[in-house]
Known about the structure:
Radius of gyration: 23 Å
Bound molecules: guanosine-5'-monophosphate, manganese (II) ion
Mean pLDDT: 90
Number of helices: 17
Structural class: alpha/beta
Helix content: 40-55%
Strand order of the largest sheet: 8-9-11-12-13-14-15-16
Shape: globular
Amino acid sequence: xxxxxxxxxxxxxxxxxxxxxxxxxxxxxxxxxxxxxxxxxxxxxxxxxxxxxxxxxxxxxxxxxxxxxxxxxxxxxxxxxxxxxxxxxxxxxxxxxxxxxxxxxxxxxxxxxxxxxxxxxxxxxxxxxxxxxxxxxxxxxxxxxxxxxxxxxxxxxxxxxxxxxxxxxxxxxxxxxxxxxxxxxxxxxxxxxxxxxxxxxxxxxxxxxxxxxxxxxxxxxxxxxxxxxxxxxxxxxxxxxxxxxxxxxxxxxxxxxxxxxxxxxxxxxxxxxxxxxxxxxxxxxxxxxxxxxxxxxxxxxxxxxxxxxxxxxxxxxxxxxxxxxxxxxxxxxxxxxxxxxxxxxxxxxxxxxxxxxxxxxxxxxxxxxxxxxxxxxxxxxxxxxxxxxxxxxxxxxxxxxxxxxxxxxxxx
Length: 412
Ligand code: G
Ligand code: MN
């Protein structure tokens, strides 16, 4: 295992390198951002120790670089600043989708440095099997053409498909009120494959998409239980395929599955894209209405991208609308998007629906949505979809940061 250290404090860099070598690793250090990026490109490190304050550059910039580079290895952050700065930086790193396995307050004793190195090693060993992901490749449509539905079922059985989670915030951007479960297929040949690429293939075989949906729901329930045990009982939304809705037995099967876990149906929300809802056959309306009656919330996803949004809203008993990210992306510049988003928020209020903005990528957009009285926000600005393990860390940091912001406000 090879560790790359970035610190302009040469004594600290030397200490970390010595302790890493003592643990049987190879180590190299850089004292500036440029030198670091140069070494990163040529050495493909398995672990990175990053100091936050670096004279001309800083650790946040380097995390942004690592995100763009698609780095998937472990990262530990170090700083002489207080733990609050470290916590916020860790929070930010996790929301970039980086694996921040630990933080180190300086000055640090050797024992503490060893612990942080150990955490990185554990994470490295866990990832060793997936070394192929070192280059974050997203598969091209051409490569996906040859994949058959049954290969997706096999991947599911091999545990290659994981359910990552993305937080959904309250309208003021403070509390995490829901999570969205999003599948990620870690394919040994192709790298990471997104649902938009493999779901359409799975949908060619009803058995496969049913198996996939069952697994997503089961996993979401397990995640919910695990999070609740850690003090984060937050409802999880999952995306349901139109194919699932063609079966009149689906609501009963789902209700039984949830009942058998003892988790309330309100812990699960179901997202259905507008186009699916608008195959508005009798069966679809029947199934969706019964799901509502059984206590599940129903969200219409990607609202505004199809041709019959309003008709879907009239026919189907949704409890929530999710404004498509394309309208949020140019909300600040486009008068049209601004008018549409404002009207959708108003429509949701009049229809008694919860209104969610998807794809919030920056602070200005979040601020504007807040003044427009949005109910909920989701997007990279808060966090990317991340693993359960990373989410628990993220939530812990998030709560710590908002608690201290709260106490600063009441103190001032
Ligand atoms: O169709 P649906 O809304 O379920 O799609 C969610 C997809 O959008 C996921 O793949 C997720 O990674 C992606 N996503 C989540 N937040 C953002 C964001 O802020 N910007 C962009 N471009 N995509 C996002
Ligand atoms: Mn969705």
